[in-house]
Write a structure and sequence with these properties.
Blueprint lengths: L9 E4 L49 E8 L5 E10 L2 E8 L5 E3 L1 E4 L8 E3 L2 E6 L25 E3 L5 E7 L4 H4 L6 E5 L19 H6 L5 E6 L1 E2 L3
Antiparallel strand pairs: 1-10, 2-3, 2-13, 3-4, 4-10, 5-9, 6-11, 7-8, 11-12
């Protein structure tokens, strides 16, 4: 159902090293915040490719919703938008100021991006953006079969990344329902539940099946409808 697991198309820009220089990295880039944006937002780029989203994406379906990604200290580091064509949702992400490498990237089930917040299911657990809950659809399958599981983001050496991926795993109504939804960018790579039996004869444990072992929540953005 998702490009990362063999359904739909993926286009990932970020395999190169930009201009070869390391960009500035936010000291809080291992954690994010929340707000909304418009379809013509422009995010300053630290790389060589202009970071333009929304209405500037020529040839793409119209944008139905967007999310601004913020770190726990409130720094905006990127924009994610959602465009719909039939049953397919195109997710476009552009970010800056992150440590290089692959980063887990998911839609979470609650539209709250609060730093140092309790887990809605276990208030004894407190951490950045735990307010966003688990992955969208986590109750009906194990990772990477959640509705909110998306292709990972690959951050270049200059701290920037761009991703366009498609999914038919969810409809926008599920993201814009009463309790909303949020996009979460994690601090580490997503293993997509791929734990060989030589390491885990009993199969992936509960943490892997819930999160893909992507680490802390580095950035978060509440998904907001775009009013036409």
């Amino acid at each position: 159902m998702i490009a990362a697991v063999g359904i739909a198309g993926v286009f990932l820009v970020g395999c190169g090293g930009g201009n070869g220089g390391a960009g500035s990295v936010s000291p809080a880039a291992t954690g994010g915040g929340s707000t909304e944006t418009t379809s013509s937002s422009v995010i300053p780029s630290t790389g060589t490719t202009p970071a333009v989203t929304g209405s500037d994406r020529k040839g793409q379906p119209p944008v139905a919703a967007e999310a601004k990604l913020h770190t726990p200290n409130g720094e905006q580091i990127g924009v994610v938008d959602f465009a719909v064509s039939g049953s397919v949702v195109t997710v476009t992400a552009m970010v800056n100021n992150l440590p290089p490498g692959f980063k887990g990237f998911h839609v979470h089930s609650i539209g709250k991006c609060e730093p140092s917040s309790p887990d809605p299911k276990d208030p004894s657990k407190v951490g950045d953006f735990l307010s966003a809950g688990g992955h969208l659809g986590a109750g009906s399958a194990a990772h990477p079969g959640h509705q909110g599981d998306l292709t990972s983001l690959q951050v270049r050496s200059d701290g920037s990344a761009q991703l366009v991926t498609t999914t038919d795993a969810f409809e926008m109504d599920a993201l814009l329902d009463a309790d909303g939804s949020a996009v979460v960018l994690h601090a580490g790579p997503d293993d997509f539940g791929n734990i060989p039996t030589r390491y885990a004869p009993a199969g992936p444990d509960a943490m892997t099946q819930a999160t893909g072992d992507s680490g802390g929540r580095a950035a978060c953005g509440v998904v907001q409808a775009i009013n036409k």
